[in-house]
Amino acid sequence: MLVTFAKSQQMTVEERRRRRFSEEFRKDQVARFERGEVTIVELGRLYEVRSASVRGWIAEYGKIGLPDPIVIRSSKDVDRVKDLEKENTRLKAALGDQYMRVVYLEELVKLAQKELGPDFEKKPDPIANKYSSLSRSS
User: Fold this and answer.
1) Considering the domain boundaries, does residue 50 fall inside one?
2) How many CA within 13 A on the CB side of residue 51?
């Protein structure tokens, strides 16, 4: 649950208008945005600042810049964006699974080398070698 800055400080409207955020504070908030901890809208709500102001901070202090806007012209575009987001999520999950598998297999090889000695090697697969030489010559 986000508690807004103004509510926690009980600021008046006039105080909110006159306040200024330090450069260090703005840089810290941009860093939080770039790490993915908060969105632009969340920062605006949290500190009761316009999203345009937060975007200005990101443009000025950010290392990765603002994300490109997604322009939606029709309902087909909305469906397409949703489909792409689902596919992106699915592919990220698949990539994570593959990474975990690689880490597991690397650790398994290390364990086998430890248990079986430094001479441990995977035996060459004659079938795989046969096909790999064919694909190189193509």
Assistant:
1) yes
2) 6
Q: How many domains are contained in the chain?
A: 2
Residue 4's φ and ψ, nearest 5 degrees, are: -70, 155
In a domain, 67, yes or no: no
- Three-state DSSP at 16 gives helix
Q: What is the mean pLDDT of the chain?
A: 80
Question: Domain range holding 35?
Answer: 5-61
How confident is the model over 56-84, as pLDDT tens digits? 999 888 888 777 777 777 888 888 889 99
Q: Where are the beta strands (DSSP E) in the chain?
A: none
Residues 82 and 56 in one domain: no
Residue 86 pLDDT > 80:
yes
> Angle, nearest 10°, between helix axes 51-61 and 23-34?
90
Residue 69 is assigned to a structural domain of this protein? no
pTM of the model: 0.44
Give domain status of residue 117, yes or no.
yes
In 3D, which of 92, 69, 93 has the Cα closest to residue 81? 69
- Could you tell me if 53 and 100 lie in one domain? no
DSSP letter (8 states) at residue 123? P
